[in-house]
Amino acid sequence: MMNHHPPPPKNSFASTVPVELERPDVPAAAPALKLLVKGFRKIELQLLDGTVKLSQRRTPRIDLLTDEQGQAADVVMIDARDPQAGQWAADQPWLQSKAVIWIDGATAPRGHTVAQRPVQWPILPMMLARALEHGPQRNTDAPRPSRTPAPLEAVRRQVLVVDDSLAVRAYLRSLLEAKGIAVDDAASAEAGVEAAETVRYACILMDVLMPGIDGYEACRRIKARRRTGSAPAIVMLTSKSSPFDRIRGTMAGCDAYLTKPVDPPQLHEVVARYVGAPARGTAAQAESSFGAQPRLVP
User: Fold this and answer.
1) What is the residue-wise DSSP string for 55-103?
2) Strands, DSSP E only, in the chain?
């Protein structure tokens, strides 16, 4: 006699995803992008479900969340033509601080993204990456920390460079020390995490690809262990410019990105956001010094 299994529940397309996530060939620690979707037609939800399943073998994978898990989402996608979805969004004040994609929306709140139908489901990861980059927490119009906060004597000017290449560490050290910045360095991500435990760095320049744990994991550990008090700013140094790498960095908690080979003016601009002016001379002299020509190592 054949056993008949009950059909899967029909009230949520996300209910089929956990089975996919439990497959033994998918690493449990693979980066996951948490997505909440509101509204959309049945055929669109079916296409979305297929895209999510395909993502389980890729990096980052996409995990669909239920309404109860909504506040944990990295990105929220809302059908602007669906009245119920629109009312739901109006009742969620926490959406203001989330990366949100409004499909067929006429306008969107600051930091949110507008896209039009038809939704290009095969490039959904790219859409989510762009939404994250332009989200409220990454808005380029947001005010940046002052380069010369007062008092100057109290400003931290300590930077940690984490890279397994001695040449890269020496090069970055020369650029930063030419600006009067004290520099420590570490040859591995593990050593960088340990150094961040003992010194309150203003900024950490973190390579991505290193033996042992990678820069993303090191960033995650440093940010997690420094939840009490001010955590250092972490700038990821990557030879990749893929939006997927930026997603991983954003999920790990990094503050900025620099692509290798590092451009000196870009390095100075980014570091200046987190490191104050030197405690010698006036603030105007310090600002002028930061724009001086860097000294390069041979």
Assistant:
1) HTTSSSEEEE--GGGGGG-SEEEEETT-HHHHHHHHT-GGGGGSEEEEE
2) 32-38, 61-64, 75-79, 99-103, 113-115, 158-162, 182-186, 203-207, 233-238, 256-259
CB contact set of 256 (below 8 Å; sequence gap of 6+): 233, 235, 236, 270, 273
pLDDT in the model for residue 152: 30
pTM for the full model?
Answer: 0.46
Which has the closest alpha carbon to 121: 65, 41, 29, 15? 41
Homologous superfamily of the 152-290 domain (CATH): Response regulator (3.40.50.2300)
Element (H, E) at 196: helix 189-198
Q: Are strands 113-115 and 158-162 parallel, antiparallel or unpaired?
A: unpaired
Per-residue pLDDT band at 235 (split at 50, 70, 90) = very high
Return the structure tokens found at 39: 């509204």
In the chain, ranges of CATH 3.40.50.2300 domains: 13-136, 152-290
